[in-house]
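pls design
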C-alpha cells in the first residue's frame, strides 16, 4: 500500500470510528416504539401498515430491531387517551408515535422527556403542541395536515360541484378543540362564496343520526365534514347518512370517499403515516425532536366517488373531474 492510500485509509477509519462505535454499542438493541393510534387490525389498519412500511424501507424489522406497542385509540373517547399514553410511558418506550391532535395532546401531557412523533395533526401551533413549525422545541415533532386552511378550499370545491348550494352544513364535534378555528376559517370563506353556513354538532357515534336529522330540517343543500377521529371511525355511516339525507358532501380524506362520501380534498393520510417513520428513524439515531422541523403536506389530492354522485342525481362538472387524482366509479 502506498503512502497516499495508507493516509486515506487511516483518515477514513478515524472519521468513521465514532459511527462504528455507536453502531457497535447499539448492536442487538431492540428499539421500543409506543403507537397511540388506529388498531393494526381495525378500521385504520391500512394507515398502521403504511407506518410499518415506512419503517421497513428504512431497514427496521419488527420483532428483531424494533418492537411496537400498540394502544388503539377508541373513537371519540378522548379522555382515555392520556391513560393509554401513560401505559406506553410505563413500558419505557423510546419514542411515542401518535395519530390525530387529541392523541398527541394526551401524550404531551403525559411526558415531557420521551420523544413524540405526531401524524395527521391539525395546526399544532394553535393547539399548543409546538412553538413553531420550523423550530418545534420540546419533545414533539412530526407531520401535520393543517386542516384549518383546507376548510375554505373544500367549501369552494363543494360549491363548484353543487353550484346551486346556498346553505351548507358543517359537521363538527364540540369536544374537538380545533373545530372552532376551522369553523372561523369556513365562515370567512363562506362570505366570499355567498353561502350561508349551518353548524351541526355530533359529539359521539350515537349523535350522528340526530345531526343529519337537523340538517334535513334546516334544508341545507350540501355538507362539509370536519376532520375528527370519531367521524373517521364512523366514515361509512357518515357516508350512508349523507346519501340517505340527499346531501352532497366533501369529507376529510379519501378514506371517507372509498366508504361512500362524495368528494375529498386533502393530503394523503397513508403517505403522512409512512413519512412519520423518517422522524422515528432520525430520533433513534440521536436527533432531538425539538430540532426537527415540522413537515407540512405539499401535495393535495382530490378524490371523487361517481357512484355516490349518481345515487344523488348529481353531475360532477368536467372541470372537477379533470383535476381529480382519484375517481371511483
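designed seq:
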Amino acid at each position: 500500500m502506498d503512502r497516499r492510500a495508507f493516509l486515506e485509509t487511516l483518515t477514513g477509519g478515524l472519521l468513521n470510528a465514532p459511527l462504528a462505535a455507536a453502531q457497535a454499542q447499539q448492536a442487538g438493541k431492540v428499539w421500543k416504539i409506543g403507537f397511540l393510534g388506529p388498531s393494526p387490525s381495525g378500521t385504520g389498519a391500512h394507515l398502521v401498515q403504511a407506518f410499518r412500511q415506512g419503517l421497513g424501507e428504512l431497514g427496521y424489522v419488527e420483532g428483531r430491531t424494533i418492537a411496537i406497542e400498540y394502544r388503539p385509540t377508541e373513537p371519540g373517547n378522548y379522555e382515555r387517551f392520556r391513560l393509554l399514553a401513560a401505559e406506553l410511558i410505563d413500558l419505557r418506550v423510546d419514542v411515542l408515535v401518535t395519530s390525530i391532535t387529541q392523541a398527541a395532546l394526551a401524550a404531551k401531557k403525559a411526558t415531557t422527556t420521551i420523544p413524540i412523533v405526531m401524524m395527521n395533526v391539525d395546526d399544532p401551533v394553535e393547539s399548543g403542541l409546538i412553538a413553531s413549525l420550523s423550530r418545534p422545541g420540546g419533545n414533539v415533532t412530526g407531520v401535520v395536515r393543517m386542516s384549518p386552511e383546507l376548510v375554505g378550499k373544500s367549501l369552494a370545491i363543494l360549491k363548484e360541484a353543487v353550484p346551486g348550494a346556498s346553505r351548507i352544513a358543517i359537521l363538527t364535534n364540540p369536544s374537538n378543540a380545533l373545530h372552532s378555528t376551522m369553523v372561523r376559517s369556513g365562515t370567512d370563506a363562506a362570505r366570499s362564496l355567498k353561502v350561508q353556513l349551518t353548524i351541526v354538532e355530533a359529539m359521539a357515534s350515537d349523535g350522528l343520526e340526530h345531526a343529519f336529522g337537523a340538517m334535513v330540517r334546516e334544508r341545507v343543500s350540501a355538507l362539509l365534514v370536519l376532520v375528527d377521529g370519531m367521524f373517521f371511525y364512523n366514515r361509512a355511516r357518515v357516508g350512508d347518512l349523507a346519501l340517505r339525507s340527499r346531501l352532497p358532501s366533501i369529507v376529510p380524506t379519501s378514506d371517507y370517499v372509498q366508504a361512500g362520501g362524495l368528494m375529498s380534498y386533502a393530503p394523503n393520510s397513508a403517505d403522512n403515516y409512512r413519512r412519520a417513520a423518517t422522524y422515528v428513524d432520525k430520533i433513534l439515531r440521536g436527533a432531538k425532536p425539538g430540532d426537527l422541523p415540522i413537515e407540512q403536506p405539499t401535495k393535495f389530492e382530490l378524490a371523487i366517488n361517481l357512484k355516490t354522485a349518481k345515487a344523488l342525481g348529481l353531475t360532477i362538472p368536467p372541470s372537477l373531474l379533470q383535476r381529480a387524482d382519484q375517481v371511483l366509479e
